Amino acid sequence: MTKQETIKRDYEFRKTKRVNFDQDWQLLKGYLNPNSTDITIKRAPGQRQTEELFDSTAIDASEKLIGELASTLTSAAFRWFTLRMREETLNQIPEVRLWLDDASTRMFQALQQSNFRTASIEVYQSIVNYGTGMLYEEERERLTQEFSGLRFEAAPIGSYVFDEDGLGRANQVTRLLRMQLMECAFRWGTDRMHPDRREQLKRTPYEFIDVLHDIRPNEAETRWESIYMDFEKETIFSAGMFFDFPCMIPRWSKQAGEVFGRGRGHTALPEIRTLNRARQLKLRQWGLAVSPPLQTLDDGIVGKPRLMPGALNVVRSLDAIRPIDIGQRFDHTAIPEAESKLQIRQIFYTEQLLQFAALAKTPPTATEVIQRIEFLHHLLGPAVGRLQDELLDPLIDRTFNIMLRAKAFAPMPLILEALGGDIDVEYEGPLARAQKSDELKSLNDLMIVAGGLAQFDPEVLDHYDLDMVAKDLPRITGSSLRYLRADDQVERRRAVRQQAVAQQQQAQLAAQGASTARDVGQAAQSFAQAGTQA
Q1: pLDDT digits over 89-121, tens only?
Q2: Which of 149, 191, 320, 493 could crosslink 140 through cysteines, CB 3.0-4.6 Å?
Q3: Secondary structure element (H or E) that encloses residue 121, with its range
């Protein structure tokens, strides 16, 4: 079996295991993102896709949650991550600390200068609505020897299949791409095309074909093979290698034994369908009330009935035309629309987030902001933890490795090259800071209690290493490590301070000695005078 046949066979097999998810995604797409790409059906370009949608509560709630995730996890307003060495002693070395801070800034600037912002929004949308998202990252094509920047691509739901490794992370993926023949020829040339495709290119260059992009570990499992192939003709357009797995596939939540996740859309689907059906029945009842069905006598009306306001109908009998009485009136107010809307907003956390919105015109206080962030952390904690493991951690690792190979960082300190070590990521967004707020609050409470005890016995503070507390504060508060002085600088400042104190004490002792000698001299003189008089 050729490599092309193996890739196609694996894709078809994994796609059959995704059938039930495809049906759910198609249903969710109609209610949450009606204008996105279809999964199980095909429509003509530009065809209307909202015929069966009668309520947009779920769409609005979903967009609010997506915006909240984007602004709190990967905000464009400030750097939301910092690199740190896993070995804490290395973080105390000034050269290492400054290099890590500079590398973090350069990585954030590279993300800002790319299309990461728009692609990440699409990924958050897919995660919230469908439970699974995919973000593809690569370096832009270089025109010079220097680093050219990053490029991101969010894959639509239903366009890919993947497998996991032993840690539950995606490590093999196959994407189905729709590409024009002209685009394929421009990207890979016509030499690698099937002869039928070359003839087709001459006749219809804008026609779309299916292209498979397969990424899987090589035999040694040290790199990832990347193959683009014509799905129908089974010809390989391009074959290459990745040093790192280029795809991040985060899930909102996942059941054991499944690879695709489930999002808030799955949870809200029953209420969404109930509300949509209720609005449909309500609109139908309004239509019956405004334009009820009519009954007429056979040949009782001259011409066709005119139902426009003020229209004149000529009849042969006064009772020739009248509305049909359908009997019992339907009370549309009995449909629990408000309950369904509230339930949908709560499932997407919109209602909980709005609890902290400022009701007055004055802006919220700092305490209210902290309470809102802490509440959001407790609410989204499990989902955020999974997003950090499956989206943000691989994203930072991939970005760092790309820029390191491209020599986009400042020269690495010699001591770091010699000692080496693992690099970890510290997240500094509002949710990450909320996760550390409990630790900061506990530390603050400890210092208050210890300070109170020190008023009675100052030796109590000997139990606490305050230098270690001071060094750990940047990690807890999320501030830059460059604000910390090196240990030798601290020692020199303390030595200068101790020397100044010692000199001051010596000056005071000298002044006291001079004063004592003067007092003794005056006393001796007084005794001498007294003796002379005697």
Answers
A1: 888 888 888 899 999 999 999 999 999 999 999
A2: 149
A3: helix 116-130
Residue 163 in tokens: 């497998």
* Bridge partners of residue 132, in order along the sequence: 251
User: 3-class SS at 227?
Assistant: strand
**Token duo for residue 186:** 């421009």
Cα–Cα distance for residue pair 9/12, rounded to 1 Å: 5
Structure tokens at 506: 């010596």
Concatenated DSSP letters for 85-112? ESSHHHHTSHHHHHHHHHHHHHHHHHHH
Per the rule left: phi > 0, alpha: psi between -120 and 50, beta: everything else, 326 is: alpha
At residue 4, what are phi and psi to the nearest 5 degrees? -65, -45
Single pTM value for the model: 0.78
Look up tokens 């024009």; give the residue: 180
**CA–CA dist 398, 391 (Å, integer):** 11
Ramachandran region, residue 362 (left: φ > 0; alpha: ψ -120 to 50; beta: rest): beta
- By the 8 A CB rule, do 96 and 85 touch? yes
Q: How far apart are CA 192 and CA 229, in angstroms?
A: 10
Angle at Cα 31 formed by Cα 268 and Cα 285, nearest 5°? Answer: 100
**Would you say 264 and 58 are in contact if contact means Cβ atoms under 8 Å apart?**
no
The long-range contacts involving 353-361, CB below 8 angstroms and separated by at least 24 positions, are: 353/64, 353/68
The DSSP H or E segment spanning 512 is helix 487-533
Q: Which helix (H) or strand (E) holds 431?
A: helix 430-454
pLDDT score recorded for residue 397: 95
Q: How far apart are the first and last CA of the chain?
A: 132
Distance between CA atoms of residues 349 and 200, nearest Å: 51
Model pLDDT for residues 324-342, shown as the tens digit of each residue: 666 556 565 666 788 889 9
- Compute the C-alpha angle 381/385/388, nearest 5°: 135
User: CB burial class (10 A; 0-12, 13-18, 19+) of residue 247?
Assistant: buried
Strands 170-180 and 160-164: antiparallel
The residue ranges of every structural domain in the chain are: 1-289+332-466, 485-534
The 10 Å Cβ neighbour count of residue 73 is 21
Nearby residues of 130 by Cβ (< 8 Å), 6 or more positions away: 25, 28, 157, 263, 265
Length of the chain: 534
Rounded-to-integer distance, Cα 124 and Cα 86, Å = 29
- Report the distance separating Cα 484 and Cα 497, nearest Å: 19
